[in-house]
TrEMBL record:
Keyword Transmembrane helix: yes
Family: Belongs to the CpsC/CapA family.
Localization: Cell membrane
Pfam families: Wzz
Name of this chain's protein: Wzz/FepE/Etk N-terminal domain-containing protein
Organism whose genome encodes this protein: Streptomyces lienomycini
């Protein structure tokens, strides 16, 4: 999985196999969110609107919004409210302003009670209007820009232009050119004066800002509310758990392919065999309070293992085991005695090794030896001519497999082959006289005939083993009943 793309089916399998752990983490996240809500008291936000008459550009409205939250306005509001222990600097963190549509500045105040939030927003709006009017009135009082002075300047300029126009010489003399130049300069001065007059009148008109009524008293808490904190904590813990599981699976370097496992052990792959799926086969064998906790949370089983494959017939499963035994006979000279090495805790491999001993029927003679992966120790070589490693895919790291191979070498055993066991779903057996739906009767009869031939072959192998002598049969029976499997 470390090199594969994470798909929705992987996330679905993780949610299904880790649902109890995820449910516990969601509850913990909700409790954390509730605890955070207790540390921060609820806050309420009220808003007051100020109308700006006239025509305003967008950048001018943004400037007025900045003026509404400036220290000059907020400090005056703090002095008027006289809140105990609250100064203008702290109040600026509770006040905000933004430009809305229709030349409206919306001023919002936040406090721990609805009444104080309403008073705060109303007071800041009033102080903003008063401050804007004071600025506009002070600017209009300058003599050079007063409307009366500008109008006198316009009238004087018009008279001077008329005089110059009457005395100007239409010729190309120096005096006539100078007169016309002075005339153009005066016309420019007249235009500037008229423009200043218009700007002054517009500023006087803009100074009439109006507070559009008192702020409405808030009825609900300002975000984030307690419900939002509880839900956010639960969602955050769920997302972190999912991401953590996927990240751990992404960096997992366990060999999963049959060829990769055989390459790590330095031997050849003899085949893959099927074992009926059992949930207990993937559980971690441990005891104690920690093991019980893991069993309750569902973390005692691997979630990243693929789902069991669709099963074939029992005859097909037997054929796989017999083919592995046949390959062992071809690779090993007589007498064929092998040590079957199974990682301790790999229940799937243990069951596969047990059936492999049964299917071999003494040829080759197999002896099962569980080996701890933490401290691998293989029995010394006695009468065996090699070791056969049986394990399940995706359960062990490359270092653990290398340790098993080195333990076999230390015990004097050569790894002659690797068998990978996989799980399949079990399905109820059908009645012999009724073929599956949609399957022709001829195909059903053919399948029944194949199964009968497989059983006949099994009986023939058993007869051959019996004819080989009582020593071999007794040895096989002793291996199975003696607890080696």
């Amino acid at each position: 999985m470390s090199d594969d793309t994470i798909r929705l089916v992987t996330i679905g399998r993780m949610l299904r196999r880790r649902r109890r752990l995820l449910a516990v983490l969601v509850v913990v996240g909700a409790l954390v969110g509730y605890g955070v809500s207790l540390l921060f008291p609820p806050r309420y936000t009220a808003s007051a609107s100020v109308l700006l008459p006239g025509q305003w550009e967008e950048r001018e409205l943004l400037t007025q919004a900045e003026v509404a939250t400036s220290s000059a306005v907020v400090d005056r509001a703090a002095a008027a409210l006289r809140l105990p222990g609250v100064d203008g600097r702290e109040l600026r963190d509770r006040v905000s302003a933004k430009a809305a549509d229709g030349n409206i500045i919306k001023i919002s105040g936040t406090d721990e009670s609805p009444e104080r939030a309403q008073r705060l927003s109303d007071q800041v709006a009033q102080q903003f209007v008063a401050y804007a009017a004071r600025i506009a009135g002070g600017g209009a009082g300058t003599g050079a820009t007063a409307p009366e002075t500008l109008r006198e300047q316009v009238a004087e300029t018009n008279r001077r232009i008329s005089e110059l126009a009457a005395s100007a010489d239409p010729g190309q003399t120096v005096e006539s050119v100078q007169a016309r130049t002075e005339l153009e300069q005066l016309r420019t001065a007249l235009q500037e004066a008229v423009q200043k007059l218009d700007e002054t009148e517009s500023a006087n008109h803009r100074a009439g800002m109006v507070v559009m009524g008192p702020a409405a008293r808030p009825t609900g808490e300002a975000p984030p509310t307690r419900v939002q904190l509880v839900g956010g904590g639960a969602l955050l813990f769920l997302v972190l758990a999912v991401v953590g599981h996927l990240a751990a699976a992404r960096v997992d370097r366990r060999p999963r392919g049959e060829a990769e496992i055989a390459a790590v052990l330095g031997s050849a792959l003899l085949g893959t065999v099927d074992v009926a799926h059992e949930r207990a086969a993937h559980r971690v064998k441990a005891r104690g309070a920690r093991a019980r906790t893991r069993r309750i949370l569902g973390t005692d089983t691997r979630w990243d293992l693929p789902d069991p494959r669709t099963p074939g017939t029992e005859a097909d499963a037997g054929v796989r085991y017999r083919r592995v035994c046949a390959r062992l006979r071809d690779r090993q000279p007589a007498p064929r005695r092998l040590l079957v090495v199974v990682p301790d805790g790999d229940e799937t491999a243990r069951r596969a090794a047990g059936r492999l001993v049964t299917e071999a029927q003494g040829d080759p003679l197999l002896r099962v030896a569980p080996v701890s992966v933490s401290r691998p120790m293989v029995p010394d070589r006695d009468t065996e001519s090699g070791a056969l490693v049986v394990l399940s895919a995706g359960s062990w790291t490359a270092e653990e497999l290398t340790g098993i191979g080195e333990a076999c070498a230390d015990g004097g055993h050569e790894v002659v082959g690797v068998v990978v066991a996989g799980t399949v779903r079990t399905r109820p057996a059908r009645s012999a006289g009724r073929p599956p739906a949609g399957r022709p009767a001829a195909d059903a009869n053919a399948a029944d005939a194949d199964a009968a031939n497989a059983d006949t072959d099994g009986d023939a192998d058993a007869a051959d083993a019996k004819a080989a002598g009582p020593t071999t049969a007794d040895a096989v029976r002793g291996r199975v009943t003696g607890g080696s499997v």
